[in-house]
Amino acid sequence: MSDHDRALETLSDLSRRLEVSAGRLRSDDLAPDEAMQVAGECAELASQAAVELDRLTRLAPGETVAPGQEELL
User: Containing H/E element for 46?
Assistant: First the structure.
């Protein structure tokens, strides 16, 4: 499996987990402290997804960067 495929698989898994967690937040079954924990999990999953998206973007060979989207050093 290539790095690109692994990154896509990871993003798919993170997306699924975010959807499940968001569904839990929308339910009326969570106590406030549980909702806070699930919201924290969502934030962590979103952070991991951002890292994977960045990695996936860097794996794309020869892609041109859109104006204003240069890498910050």
Answer: helix 32-59
